[in-house]
Amino acid sequence: MNAGPADSFREYVHARLGTLVRAAFLLTGDSYLAEDLVQQTLAKVASRWEQIVADGNPDAYVRRVLYHQHVSWWRRWRREPLPVAAVPEVAGADPHGPTTTAIAVRQALAKLAPRQRAVLVLRYFEDLTEAQTAQVLGVSTGTVKSQARDALARLRAVAPELADLQEVPK
Question: Which residue intervals define the domain RNA polymerase sigma-70 region in the entry (predicted)?
C-alpha cells in the first residue's frame, strides 16, 4: 500500500529535520530562530508536498524555501546593534578547541550578508556544488562564485582567528 502525501511528508521531516535545523542555525546563529525558520519553511512546503515530491527533488525545493525565508526575515527585521552597558572581554584560547572554533565560525558567519552566508553554508557545510547552490538560491553559477569569493574575503578580514583552520582547496 502506498503512503499518502501526509505520510510521505512526515517521513521526510523525520529524516531531514536535523540537517534542516543545522543549516538554519548556521544561517541565523540562534537555535530558537533556527527552529522557527525550519517550522515556517515546513509549513510553507506542507501544503504543496504532493507536487514537490512529484517534481522529483524535494530536498532542493525545501532548501530553497529555507534560504529564501531567511533572506525574507533579514529584509523584514534588520537588526540594529543594541547598546550594552559594558563591552564584553575577548576570551582567550580555549583548551576545548572545537567549542571555540564553532563559536568563532558562528560569529564570523553572522557578520556576512545573508546571501553570502547562504552560499557558504550551502557550499561548505551542506557540501553542494556551485551548480546545485545556484539552483537552490535561484541565481547563476557566476553569482555563487562571486558571492563565495567575496564572503571568504570578508571572513578573512573580520575573523583572522579562523585562518589557522584547514583551508579548502580551490
Answer: 15-79, 108-157
